[in-house]
Amino acid sequence: LSRMLPPLVDITPFCAAIEAEQLIVTSNQRLAAKITQAWGERMASNNKTVWKAPRVFAIDHWLARCWEELQDQNDSLVEGLAVVGKQQSSYYWDRAISQQDPDLVGSYVKTAEKTLAIVHNWQLTTEQIPDSSPSVAHFKAWASNFALLLKRNGLVTIQESWQLVGKGFDKGALCTEKSILLYGFQSIPPLQSAILQQASSSVITLPMHGSSQGCSSEFSQRPDNHRAASLACGDANQELVMAANWAATELAANPEQRIGLVIPDLSNRLQASIRHISEALQSHAVQIPVNVSA
Q1: Helix-, strand-, coil-residue percentages of the chain, each rounded to 5
Q2: Separation CA 205–CA 59 (nearest Å)
Q3: Rounded to two decimals, what is the model's pTM?
Q4: Torsion of CA 235, 237, 242, 247, to 10 degrees
């Protein structure tokens, strides 16, 4: 049998919320999956064979589920509307730009798309953007054309669908939550923050390290024994070899721990990283699964 590694997320601070079937919202899907996995391991260790899945969702997925619930109801807020897809969005931005600046077709689609998302995430309108340069005037014209194209085709952006979700909570079409637990956020855009407040009068942020009030966590009970060191390396390849061998040495001494290597340019050194890590583990007789995410 393969050895079970300790969960990446300490489930202790989440237990009360999960048992009360409260909503837990994370910053990304990976965190949501790890919390769900850790809860499953807790249940299995307690000899449970069946248990109810915890209500843990990445914030984007939770908002999408709320939108789908409004659509299932055929609520007047969303009647006849659909969220524009990625390919559709690029197509309509291309058309919007070509209507104003034919010479710029294909050049600014992604930039315009990201800019409008930022504007909406900060609960602003394009009219509120100061006319500080000619490029702003171009963007405002493109955004106006884009909005007309979407309206003509019964489409909304993701951020506009979130705005409608907020209205759904306000009008009672969506059921509010007694409490929402947030985890893994460094910051939350104003639009998402406002919707969370519309969804519940009690939004609690759980710190990434330590525990919230009333919750015990194994991390908060550990002594402050962190160590840091700076080592000079001849080049990037030597740095990678040293890091891989250090990790293998640590795992050989304590195979129950988890170790992460942060490689800033991993996408450009993927094969070399896998090779050096594999060689280091083999040389130290360490047999452990390795996850490489580029």
Answers
A1: 50, 5, 40
A2: 13
A3: 0.77
A4: 140
* 155 strand-pairing partners: 82
Residue 85 structure tokens: 């897809």
Q: Tell me which residue of 67, 62, 64 sits closest to 27, measured CA to CA.
A: 62
Which residues lie across from 58 on neighbouring strands?
Answer: 26
- Say if residues 219 and 252 touch (Cβ distance below 8 Å): no
Contacts of 238 (CB under 8 A, 6+ apart): none
Query: Would you list the DSSP string of 180-245?
Result: EEEES-S---HHHHHHHHHHBS-EEEEPSSS--TT---TTTTS-S---------SSHHHHHHHHHH
How would you write the pLDDT of the chain (294 residues) with one tens digit per residue? Answer: 345 566 778 899 999 999 999 999 999 999 999 999 999 999 999 999 999 999 999 999 999 999 999 999 999 999 999 999 999 999 999 999 999 999 888 789 999 999 999 999 999 999 999 998 999 999 999 999 999 999 999 999 999 999 999 999 999 999 999 999 999 999 999 999 999 999 999 999 998 754 433 333 333 344 456 678 888 888 989 999 999 999 999 999 988 788 889 998 888 899 999 999 999 999 999 888 888 876
